[in-house]
User: What shape does this take?
Amino acid sequence: MSELLVLDRVTAGYGASVVLEDVSVSLAAGGSLALLGRNGVGKSTLLLTLMGFTSLHGGAVHWQGRDLQRVLPHARVRAGIGWVPQERLMFPSLSVAEHLQVAARPGEWDIPRVYQLFPRLAERRRNMGDQLSGGEQQMLAIARALMTNPRVLLLDEPMEGLAPLIVQELLGVLRRLVSDSGLSVIVVEQHARLALELTRQAVVLERGRVVHASDSASLLASPETLNRLIGVA
Assistant: This one.
């Protein structure tokens, strides 16, 4: 597998403030990565850096060999980087179907395929964004990102605040995306074991730096290491 996305010694943050320092991470085409760490260590900032929403103070971000420094966020989406933000960002004035229509780009993912993946969205297609439950909003956020037909999907805390049954439903969907679709995925998730079960590779951040990188299975198999790095008992 060739490298699709590369952060090369990236230092980034907000304005003059530095959050990430000398971070190097790569993702192969068709790969999957769990991005782990305690609260406030820079995980979401890393995804925002990939999307072009932070100040890049050093290093480089490469997408399919192309330097993204001067590429605006909307152009990164067009280039194939899909983003599911932690806040979900629903539009109260748009229906479920309209959320999908406005994001649509040519490719394999269209509305019928998204509805097949998320039957509940088909049932609620006429409901407005603010008329959905938290779980339904998360499904719609993922579906909307898929409608851009990305090559990589960035998921920021997709399980946060959801009921256990919805978490299991979403996990099933994400497993299918990782194993069957050929889509590359980066998952930021506080539930470390869930993220490790979904992915092939793992990176742990601490104070904006990479302190551990391995395959997900070996980290999952070492509770002592996981507890030391993340505080998972």
Observations:
- DSSP finds ten helices and ten strands in the chain.
- The CA atoms of residues 227 and 233 lie 6 Å apart.
- The chain has a mean pLDDT of 93.
